[in-house]
Structures are given as C-alpha cells and as structure tokens.
Amino acid sequence: MMRAAGTIVLCGAVLATASPALAEPGPQATLRIVIMVNDRPLKGATLTCDPDGGSHPTPSAACELLRKIDGDSTKLNVVPNPVCTDEYERHTVLVRGKWHDRTVKWAHSYPNSCQMKAAGGAVFTL
After folding, report:
1. PROSITE patterns in the record, alphabetically (predicted)?
2. Spatial distance between the Cα atoms of 69 and 95, rounded to a whole number of angstroms
3. Which of 44, 52, 55, 86 is most deeply packed, by most CB within 10 A?
C-alpha cells in the first residue's frame, strides 16, 4: 500500500511539473505579409507575435509597432510626412492572418517603396 501511495505521489509530481510546458500556448498573432511591385510578388514573410518570431527579418520591432495599434494595419503611419521622390512604382502590401482572436485581411497600395516603408516601418521591411 505504501508503495502504491509513493507511486501516486511521484506521478502527481511529474504531471504537476510537466503540465505548464504542455499547456504553453502558441503565438497570439500570426500574420503573412506579402509585398507586391506592379502586381508581381516581390517578398513575403510570416510574422508571429507574443512570442515574436517567424521568417520576418525584424519580428520584435514589427510586433512592437503592431502592439501599439492593437494589430490594426490601417493605423500604421510610422513617418507621417515622409520626404520621398515622385517616382511611381506601385508597391502593394497584403496582410492576412490572426491578431489575437481577430481575423486580419488588409491590403494597401503605395506609389513607391519609400512611401510604403514610411507608412509601415519595420512591419513592411522584408
């Protein structure tokens, strides 16, 4: 009987220490970001936030910007009045995925890469 009680206590201790690792949630946000130039795909990356990661080159900086606007890409405006040339080479950014419990589907076109990077900062720097 003592042996059985010892086994139960040992099993309980193992489960108690193992369960936090098993219950650890995945990222709270997963976004696929694609940049197109004149309707041709140029670059793409996956961005995960909370924890920050994915194939995005600067996930921490990108996630920090998105956290400030609660993942609402329409509010991105890192440099409000950028000094850019008047060249025209349309850059379109597509963002799809989940931000916490919300579905994200967003697209916007900019006249050139300077305007795009000014608006999206690290989020659009792929």
Report:
1. SSI
2. 15
3. 52
The structural domains of the chain, with segments of one domain joined by +, span 26-124
Do 27 and 50 meet the contact criterion of CB atoms below 8 Å apart?
yes
Query: Euclidean distance between the first and final Cα of the chain, in Å?
Result: 63
Alpha-carbon distance of 47 to 96, in angstroms, equals: 10
Q: Determine the Cα–Cα distance for residues 80 and 61; give it in Å rounded to an integer.
A: 18
| Residue ranges in the chain assigned as alpha helix (H) | 2-23, 59-68, 113-120
Contact 99, 71 (CB under 8 A): yes
pLDDT in tens, 42-101: 999 999 999 999 999 999 999 999 999 999 989 999 999 999 999 999 999 999 999 999
51 preceded by a cis bond (ω within 30 of 0): yes
